[in-house]
Model the fold of this input.
Amino acid sequence: MNLFELTSVLAVSGLAIGFLGSLTGLGGGFIVVPLLVLGFGVDIRYAIGASLVTVIATSSGAAAAYVRDGYANIRIAMFLEIGTTAGALLGTSLALALPKQVIGGLFGIVLLHASWMNVRRKSESKASEGGSAVAAYFGMDGAYPSAAGLVSYQAHRVPVCFGLMTVAGVLSGLLGIGSGIVKVLALDQVMGLPFKVSTATSNFMIGVTAAAGAGVYLSRGYIDPGLAMPVVPGVLAGAFLGARLLPRVETRRLRVLFAAVIACAAGEMIYNGVAGKF
Amino acid sequence: MTAIGYRKAGMERALGRLLRAGVLAALALVLPGACLYLAGHGWERPDYHTFRGEPAELRRIASVLRQAMSLHGQGLIQLGVLLLIATPVARVASSAYAFARQGDRLYVAITLAVLGVLAYSLLGSR
Done:
């Protein structure tokens, strides 16, 4: 496959990845790495560099609309970003010390677990049974638009969520992904935010988490312009589309589809990690 | 809506505009860079199977800037990628300013803490 063909295929894939990533708040790094490594035989370090670019493009591309429309909660995001950026810093230094097989295997396990959690997830949003004092102190409660007008919500269990975000940061620094799945789960299941607020806020945060690791990957030569060139415009266009669709979309079907996709990818990544095929 | 409510809505619009400007600027560099790069190398077979790492001139901000100024395709793309990476950082920095204008000292401190970690990881990484 020559560069022209590779660019075309990756631009179209990027469109789909940006679309899915922005809708689900997952960022799309989870798809880019398996796609490049398994689909195109790209070394996992180049794939991680491209994934970093994908995550930042998805986040920034969709966040403009999410912030404007009132889905992303800026205060919750800023507060939790302390945990994610510090975690990412730690994870990045671990990534450079670990062999590729371990990174690949770990990635597969994370994917598989995330997929399982995704299918298991039940309710869209919990009824808020009284806010927490911590959330009130940090001014985290908010309101988001729905078909029935503005719906107010409250944040719960802030310290637990902060701890999980630090773990999410370590994972993203380690694996070059925004680890949006951990973020969405923590916001949705632990903080009890409405699902669309969870995905939009996760989407808003993952760009900053990824940016925290970008310096190391750039200086180590992981970020290749040949791979970034189709990924940036493709993913941005997809993220713009996804952000426009979020207010109308039924997310449950998307969640199941996505769970299936990452479960397949997880199996292959674990196999390759164990077989040392990277 | 209260006065603070108006200012918050203004902050959200301003952050939205900043993010959009960042990604559009990145796009404005990547697209022409891609055209130049493809025109020169489109029919070559790229080898990403073995990791060599990028050449030194595509790993440092100053040299990427030089490459882009000389209208080198890869340099333009890489500069666009750098702008893209800078966009969330700029978003955090401008949030600090917006919280300060709201008189929200707690969130100014939180935002500056995030900015500090980001600066440390971006500038201190070798």
Notes: Chain B has one domain: 3-40+55-123. The helical segments of chain B are 3-41, 61-69, 73-101, 105-123.
